[in-house]
Amino acid sequence: MEHEAHTEHHHTGHEGHGDHGSHQAHGGHEGHDGGGHGSHHAHPTSGGVTWATAAKATLHCLTGCAIGEVLGMIIGTALGWENMPTMILAIVLAFFFGYALTLRGILKAGVDFRTAFKVALAADTLSIAVMELIDNGVIALWPGAMDAHLTDALFWVVLAIALAAAFVLTTPVNKWMIGRGKGHAVVHRYHH
């Protein structure tokens, strides 16, 4: 009985030691591979798209949308327009500036305007449409936001919340599109 207990104890101790060695090897392996995995995600292949890549594409779109939205609101308000024409102008300008920022990057790569325009349309249309739907939906549904003037804090607070919501909800759309070789994946090809 004592001999069995001793054997079991010795064997258990050895297993623990074996696990410890394997754990060390695993830790060493992680340290060795960690950099490789990080750099793989920084430049995704068709196999995987990182949230960072999708967020960058969404932020690019959001910049153009925000410029268009604010400019549309300023012009509509300055001209004394009603809410609906002002919102329509803001949406049109959001699409315009969203496409313009993408076009600028593609044209810099030496692509002809016609091709660049097609790429921009393919890359940004769904992204901008989703963004505008969310953004304007938040503004339209927020009590008092449609009637707030540019000088009111409410206007800017609601606009910031609307753009943040649009960013959060559009990023997964862009991640899905890039993963399928669409959206900003198309634009990315022209930057290299």
How would you sum up this structure in a few lines?
This protein has 192 residues and is mainly α.
Report on this structure.
- With 192 residues, the chain is mainly alpha-helical.
- Helices cover 82% and strands 0% of the residues.
- The chain is globular.
- The termini are far apart.
Biggest sheet architecture: none
Q: Cα-atom Rg, whole angstroms?
A: 26 Å
Put simply, the count of helices is 6
Q: Please write the string of helix (H) and strand (E) elements.
A: HHHHHH
- In terms of per-residue confidence, which ranges show pLDDT below 50 for 5 or more consecutive residues? 2-47
Secondary-structure-based class equals mainly alpha
Q: Calculate the terminal CA-CA distance, rounded to whole Å.
A: 72 Å
* Extended strand count: 0
| Apparent shape | globular
Kindly report the average pLDDT value: 76
